[in-house]
Amino acid sequence: MPVMGLVKFERLFRAVGGVTVDRDDVNRYLDFVNDAIYDLIVIGRATAKANVRDVIEPWDLPITKGLQESMRQFENSKRRSNSSPSSNR
User: Fold this and answer.
1) pLDDT of residue 85
2) The domain that contains 62 carries what CATH number?
3) DSSP 11
4) Would you say 18 and 12 are in contact if contact means Cβ atoms under 8 Å apart?
5) Which residue range is the domain that position 59 belongs to?
6) Which residue of 17, 38, 44, 70 pairs with 56 in a disulfide if CB–CB is 3.0 to 4.6 A?
7) 53 belongs to a structural domain
8) Per the domain annotation, does 13 fall within a domain?
């Protein structure tokens, strides 16, 4: 199930990086993201199993400092774009 439609994805890349993307670019990107998420889940599952749990907790995932900072920057940029006057139309 796609999280974001192609048009919104294109607008995001154009706004953030001034980059023009097509459907093939989006598919390659989504493949990359899905592979990365799968890798996180595999490690999280192994960590939860080693701790005798069936549920993966957030602390089971190997989130690096760099990824945490990127997530924080993304959240801040979302807040800024949601509070901008042009988004209130």
Assistant:
1) 61
2) 1.10.20.10
3) H
4) no
5) 6-84
6) 44
7) yes
8) yes
Closest CA to 74 of 62, 84, 66, 64: 66
Dihedral of alpha carbons 74, 45, 39, 35, sign:
negative
Total tally of structural domains belonging to the chain = 1
Residue 89 belongs to a domain: no
Residue 69 CA to residue 84 CA, distance in Å, equals 23
pTM here? 0.58
- Round to whole Å and give the CA distance between 36 and 19: 22
Spell out a b/e string for 50-76, using b for 16 or more CB atoms within 10 Å of the CB, else e.
Answer: eeeeeebeeebbeeeeeeeeeeeeeee
